[in-house]
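Appendix B: a complete holo record

For completeness, this appendix reproduces one full record from the ligand-bound portion of the collection. The bound molecule is zinc ion. The inputs are the chain sequence and the ligand SMILES; the output is the full three-dimensional arrangement of the complex, encoded as structure tokens. No fields have been trimmed.
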Amino acid sequence: MALNLIMLGPPGAGKGTQAERLARARGIPKISTGDMLREAVQSGTEIGQQARVVMNRGELVSDAVMIGIMRERLDRADARPGFVLDGFPRTVAQAAALDGIVTGRDPLLVVDIEVPEAELVRRLSTRLICSDCGANAAGEDTVCGRCKGRLVQRADDNDDVVRERLKVYHRESAPLVAYYRVRPTFRSINGAQPADRVFDDLAATVEAAVASAAKPGERR
Ligand SMILES: [Zn+2]
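The structure of the chain with zinc ion bound, as generated:
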């Protein structure tokens, strides 16, 4: 059975890193709207310019744009054996559109990474990024671990923008989590642990969920 996984979780939960690691372990693509939007911004296309203005305000690009990007991406051959979605869907409208896109494929598995708000604010206000290669770094690092480049605070991580991002996330994710929570393929894991522990929980949760979805009579 294909692993069609949606990762949910607030900014600062480590969702992107965990999604990347799981995708690599399973040999399926990690599909991140963040990466796709950054590519568009760097390429300087019209949609990229619009996205940059919106993201610099701490807001999100429109559903229609994201859904169009996703439909095209999930149609590619490498996503047939499965995929890990990071950052999509972000709204109920996107989730409903995604259900349409994946009609006829194996069921969507949804994993929500939960982290208390105070921990998120602490993590986000100390997050650094390499000015040369774009790698993320921890608050205690002084140079990039990948290329020794200079570390700077992420442009979108000043205090006001951190709070706005969390506010937007909570406002939009509550109905999204409610949309998925009723499904037999919804799981939540504890993201307030060391990254390796979170990954172990994620991998075990995915294994168990795939096994139970493959045997419909034993769904919980
Ligand atoms: Zn670097």
